[in-house]
Amino acid sequence: MTAVAEPANFLERILRRLADAPNTSFLHEVRGGKGPSAAGSDVLSLIAQARSFLRSAGLKRGDRCALHAGNSVNWVATDLAIMAEGLIAVPLYSRQAASELAVMLRDCSPALVISGDASLRDAIAREWPEHPRIAVLDEVFAAAKPAQTAPEPPLALTSKDPVTIIYTSGTSGEAKGVILTVGNLDHMLRCTNERLNDLMAGHSGQDHVFHYLPFCFAGSWILLLTSLLRGSLLTLATDLSKLAEDMRATSPHYFLNVPVLLERMRTGVDEQIHKTGGAIHAIYEHAKDAWFRRRMGDESASSFWIWLANLLVFPTIRKKMIGGNLRGLICGSAPLAVETQLYFTMLAIPVLQVYGLTETTAICTMDCPGRVEPGFVGPAIPKVEMKLGEQDEVLVRGPNIFAGYWNRAEATANAMRDGWFHTGDQGEVNEAGNWRIIGRLKNLIVLSSGHNVAPEPIEDMILHLLPDAQQVVLVGHGKPFVAAIVTGDVSRDEVNQALEIANPQWPHYKRVRSFLLHPEPFSVENGLLTANGKLRREAINARFQAQIEEMYSATPAA
Length: 558
Prior knowledge:
Layout (H helix, E strand, L loop, with lengths): L9 H11 L4 E6 L6 E3 H17 L7 E5 L4 H12 L3 E5 L5 H11 L3 E4 L2 H10 L5 E4 H4 L21 E6 L9 E5 H18 L8 E4 L6 H13 L2 E5 L5 H8 L3 E4 L1 H18 L1 H18 L8 H9 L1 H9 L5 E4 L6 H9 L4 E5 L9 E2 L18 E4 L4 E5 L6 E2 L3 H7 E2 L2 E10 L5 E6 L4 E2 L5 E2 L1 H11 L3 E7 L6 E7 L3 H11 L9 E7 L18 H7 L1 H10 L4
Parallel strand pairs: 1-10, 3-4, 3-5, 5-6, 9-10, 9-11, 11-12, 12-13, 24-25
Antiparallel strand pairs: 1-2, 7-8, 8-17, 13-14, 15-16, 16-19, 18-19, 19-20, 21-22, 23-24
């Protein structure tokens, strides 16, 4: 019997996993509880079709192929096919403005663009008249399926070979293409797999994973690849209006989140129980108050209400929210409010935080199950070094660090100095090795008094106190005091009440002394949020410059 060669890299291991379990479902598209599934043999067949299409399109090793579509089984198969052909995948956000996409596409010069549908294709074509061929995703799978034989191995790849260019969100208005290599992915997927082994200790059978975040974001893509490697069943939620329904129907063991969803889940529970009223509402409110007081060290808070809620209320919340199988929620992409993490802890739902950037293959730190410190994002992952530089900037080096920015040698040299990647994030680390991220250095507000203000913690606190607000953005660079822009359906009285609670918790120079109300939320479409929901602070300041100046003129300095 001929020995089967051990897979050399993550891609070979994924294809081997699919081939070894031809009848096992790996992917499931769900819309309102229903949708198609794809077993190992199905995914391999789709990969073979996509590879055939890429060859017929004349693409050669090293060419870039842009993938501009929403999550689907076909997206996954196309992405794996691109890498198997030795091409470089360039995933793009389907909801991003076509004008911004055109800038990225001109930058990476793809030989082929694959769009999710005709409307996405046409939007790019209008903004990029000199475009190469733009195919629609259905075209990739329209041809007859190749004869099913043994799965074709991928082209040989070395650890230094690039497999993707993922464009950063461009909060300053300029997105850069981050090159990730086989070696980056090999290391990161080993780390994520080991941490999920810890989370799922004692469980036999498939992991059930729920997923709604676009695969074009690095962290989302890492979870996809990890799930394939682990042989998990990954359920893709393709209708965000049915997210809560699909989440409950899936009853996952874990899934990846952004803080805004956890905030909405928490607010939704509060609102639903308030509507329910009666004894349930009373028990819930008393238990919350007692739990948080005891957490803050107040031993006089009665444990009776917590015991009663654990018996009558909290189990029902857990089951209705996310089914009965949950081992933990994984959260990344932005800072999570400590109060929110503690809220889920109260419900016996662990929230594991992850910190990283696209340039670090999405991850630098991961919480360890059973050793979570609320407000921290866990220790550095294996073989990754982290330290603090000037102004407490987080510096990182290790096998997770990207190969550089596409066509931007100067930007790469600026980010990589003396072998360390400069993240641009302010942080701190405690004696246990757990890291806390304070905010972005470039977001620091330097007042005319010389005081430095990190806006993120203040914004998070005020936003938490204003459940109907959409965003809170601090301004005041070069000004005598800090002010804010508040979006959403919020009144002046509500903001004033929130500030009366928040301001005393900060030193005088961090207190918000004036604010603007703006009913329209910031969004990707109006150019004030990045593709993954981060604030474009420079654009916001420019858009509201006149109102900001008027606000400061009307409010005398202290």
